[in-house]
Design a protein that fits this description.
single chain, 298 residues, alpha/beta, Conserved hypothetical protein from pyrococcus furiosus pfu- 392566-001, ParB domain, 2 domains, five-stranded mixed sheet, two-stranded antiparallel sheet, 12% strand
Length: 298
Amino acid sequence: MADDISKKRLGRGLAALLGDVDTDAEAVERARSQRRVPIEFVTPNPNNPRRSFAADDLEDLTRSVREKGIVQPILVRPQPGKPISDNRYEIIAGERRWRAAQAAGLHEIPVLIQAVSDKEALELAIVENVQRSDLNPIEEARGYQQLLDGFDYTQQDLATVIGKSRSHVANTLRLLKLPDGVQKLLQDGELTAGHAKILVAADDPAALASQIVDGHMSVRAAETLARSAGEGQKGSGSSQSTASALVKDADTQALENSLSEVLGLLVDLRHKPNGTGELRVKYKTLDQLDFITAKLRS
């Protein structure tokens, strides 16, 4: 029962804890819990799912903090293992603001103190970062997995808490099955969440990821490439010639992507070493064929 109440409270979102939807009683309690403390009394949460802090974004926030201070208090809890009288705190949500405050040279910061367990601290950290879209896809997936592994959560419970669909949770967790190299590309921002959805369904995600990055492909172009590879494999089984045809250099891929984006149709360019080749434009309806014909005539 206690867990159900906790999940319902958390499901209201971080706004409830930060006062955006307070009742009168909650507003009074929040005011009692809010104070200013020396910045050195606050430390990061070692279990924070967020690991990457973009330097450019942090510089922008630092300038804002230097000019206007921290508008929204940082959510903290008494530091585990320390007496409450020590007034030492661990961040639950708001580590980026804390880092910016350090860089801006602030001596004190506003905090909102909540006495929560390790489980609730992790839940809140994930909710805050997901709501703010601050996590890269792999960080989000690892945060979900932490809750599933460490606490009594189902995927449906998790979906309810973070305000996402169960399919979103399941698909995000699937990213952890990708090869380490592909996960690193997602963490570094070289691949987006849109690319990730394509990669988890690919037969060879590492090869596809390499082609996407080398060709600077948009999500739409990556989808076209993935479909082309899938159709080629279905049509020719395991023939060596078709497998070789699917391995294309970056220039060929870039030209295919450019033509696909202009036409909005699947383009397959097969260039041979002797300088000859084929350009195939695939259509599914007569209207698409009429469109291609009109393009060529014009």
